[in-house]
Amino acid sequence: MPRFPVGFELAEALTAAAQHLHGTGTPDDTMNTAVALAVRLLPDAEHAGIAEIQRGGRLRSLAWTDETVRFAAEPRQAGHTPHPHWERLWTTPVVRTDDSEADGGGNVLSGLGLRSALSLRLRADRRRLTVLTAYARKPQAFDEDATRVGRLFTAHVSLALDSATVREQLTEAMRTRDLIGQATGILMERLDIDAAGAFESLVKASQRENVKLRDLARRIVDANSGTSGRGVTER
User: Fold this and answer.
1) Residue 192 and residue 132: Cα distance in Å, rounded?
2) Nearest to residue 172, comparing CAs of 26, 20, 24?
3) What one-character-per-residue DSSP string does 47-80 give?
4) Are 82 and 108 in contact (CB under 8 A)?
5) Beta-ladder partners of 94
6) Whether 57 contacts 42, CB under 8 Å
7) Among 52, 49, 37, 26, which residue's Cα sits nearest to residue 1?
8) What is the pLDDT of residue 82?
9) Is 99 exposed, middle or buried (0-12, 13-18, 19+ CB in 10 A)?
10) DSSP-derived secondary structure for 72-136
11) pTM for this entry
12) pLDDT of 168-177, one tens digit each?
């Protein structure tokens, strides 16, 4: 993997990466693209993964280049302790593991033969972190240059991930609006009421049955189209 000098080569590589990232359709697609690009962009990276870290240490893999990386984000594995140093990402955007066997091993990375790791924070709130990590099988694989490239790259990943999330939320909101509109129309015809009354009936049924408005609307639409399910039968 070439070392990127300061200047055009790095800028060109990051621009191409940003185009790939922003061309994805969903957050999952963005993360899968990001881990594949990380191995190509970060000097000496052999594997990459994205994981979610919750308060209390619970870990969940979100994207990975291979099964080795997916196992690296498991909270417990074969008696090994959790991924070393990830807790520090609550207070710092980058954590580097130079040699997972330096302190005698006994952690997930050393158990998988991964000696080096470069972890970069993508998202953070009070409850969880989203982290991109590049891995290598040799010790001290990631130096300051790799860290610099990694931080520039994850800035693009974060922007693309936010954009994909907003698009997904807007798409879901439009689908929900259309679904509720269909259910309201069905109730207007079935109960012989106006739109306001139909929507009020839908809301009351949602509260009474402790079902999300969207799910209740889908149930009504499915029932009306012949799919089995219960709908709102009374005001």
Assistant:
1) 55
2) 26
3) EEEEEEEETTS-EEEEEESSHHHHHHT-S-BTTB
4) yes
5) 120
6) no
7) 37
8) 55
9) middle
10) HT-S-BTTBBSPTTGGGGGT-SEEEES-TTTT---BHHHHTT--EEEEEEEEE-SSEEEEEEEEE
11) 0.77
12) 888 888 888 9
Tell me the helices (H) and strands (E) count for the chain, helix number first.
Answer: 7, 5
Quick one: 163 exposed, middle or buried, by C-beta within 10 A (0-12, 13-18, 19+)? Answer: middle
Counting beta carbons within 10 angstroms of the beta carbon of residue 108, is it exposed (0 to 12), middle (13 to 18) or buried (19 or more)?
buried
Q: Give the whole-angstrom CA distance, residue 9 versus residue 165.
A: 30
Whole-angstrom Cα distance, residue 142 to residue 47?
13
pLDDT in tens, 63-99: 999 988 887 766 554 444 456 677 888 899 999 999 9
Question: CA distances (Å), 181 to each of 46, 125, 173, 185, 219, in order?
Answer: 50, 34, 12, 6, 13
